[in-house]
Amino acid sequence: MSKLTSLPDALKAIPDGAMLALGGNTLNRAPMTAVYELARQQKRGLRLVKTAGAMDVDLLCLAGCVHSVDAGFVSYESHFGLCPHYRKGVEQGRVQSNEHACYTVISALRASAYGLPFMPVAGLRESDLRKAHPYFATVRDPFGGEELTVVRALRPDWAIVHVQQADELGNARIDGPLYEDVLMTQAARRVLVTAEEIVPEGFFRRSEQKPQIPHFLVHSVVHQPRGASPSSCLNHYPVDEEEVASFLALPDAEALTAWLNDRGRTAR
Amino acid sequence: MIRPSDMMAVVLARLIRDGETVFHGVSSHLPMVAMLLAKRLHAPHAVHLNIGGGVDPTMARQDGISSAGSNLWTDAQAAFSLADVFDLSMRGGLDVAFLSGVQFDSRGGVNASLIGDWQQPKVRLPGGAGSAVLIPTARRAILWRTKHDKRTLVRDLDFLTARGHVSDLVTPLCHFTMYQGEMLLNSIHPGADIETIANHTGFPIRYINLQRTPPPTQAEMAALQHIDPGDLRNIEFRSL
Known about the structure:
heterodimer; A: alpha/beta; Glutaconate Coenzyme A-transferase; 3-stranded antiparallel β-sheet; 23% strand; B: alpha/beta; 8-stranded mixed β-sheet
């Protein structure tokens, strides 16, 4: 059964308030076209999950879509600096910053993937993060008696990942760094894949480069060439620095709407 | 005139010993270049781990601005994901983690989270990334920061993101090392002096055996030009 659909239709299934895990890392293979469409559809109250976010988180904050961000790091890399809209959102109390160590995002996603309510984490000892955030707690090791930090499970409603190749059934193949994408598809309730290329059914049967994401975990597939741009996508395109700079020059949400409309026309 | 980015890359590289497992994260161009430099000069068997998951990249192609991108993958010799690196550190197998932050105290504490009150921050910073789990579990955490002033090196942190096994802190002016729980001035880079450092540091400067940082050698400079023709080591200085 084909799961191929359009991006606007796929994202209409995501309700306001949903918890979304976004694939990629900073300006690398982030599902940017899907992020643009979430902003166009004016989603509200989204709870974002990612180890290290950049323009994806920043753009959704400017668009007013975000309730909270669970992440270890939110910033462009050194070149572009801090995420101004995320920062302003948190400082003005509109966006809740749930700071993690990147590893505790992974542990919280693993908890869901393993069917557990929380996960012990080695290493998080002397840190104000523990007292500042209710998703960290201390328990006693029932066997050894030592104190352990645990992190509450993160169970995203949707994982959105961008891949190089997928077929209509949802088998999806990532070239290069996987980041936390595969784990996200195992921790989330539903999975949306956007793909540079849709390959014919049976293509992966003839390939030894098997998809890391199997069809039965995937709910919708969207053919979206340049779907990670302006972040990079290995074997397709590098970071589009001009485009990132053009976004960072936008003064407000109104300007973002016009900017997104421009990009919509180019894409269609 | 020695550029601070060259001096810092060289000092960071000299801290890496042959055979060590070494990790750096995102926004970490100086450690990334330092690692390539160390492997080319004195530590050919050090193991280079990173967020993209490529083990021992040579980065012969430098077509990206990221220190977490696929240019650390394409010519790597094996795959070892970020989750794998964290797991390695948790079980005691990571020798060195390179980390940064915005405030540092004299006891090896790091703040990368926020300025002001944590419930209503004046400035929301990017976050500590892996710091809170890596600094306590890696054998050594090496810190670097491209600013050296009283807002960066402080008496009291606004927020403690992490504390643990910090061994060194490298700035554009000098190199501190931890000794019995205290950050001591270890060496002063060429062009800096102790008065300038004291005037730009929020905690008292103490030292036992104070040295001058040896300037980059010709071999180090030649290797730097070779491995980093795009001057990625200077990115953090360009954006200041």
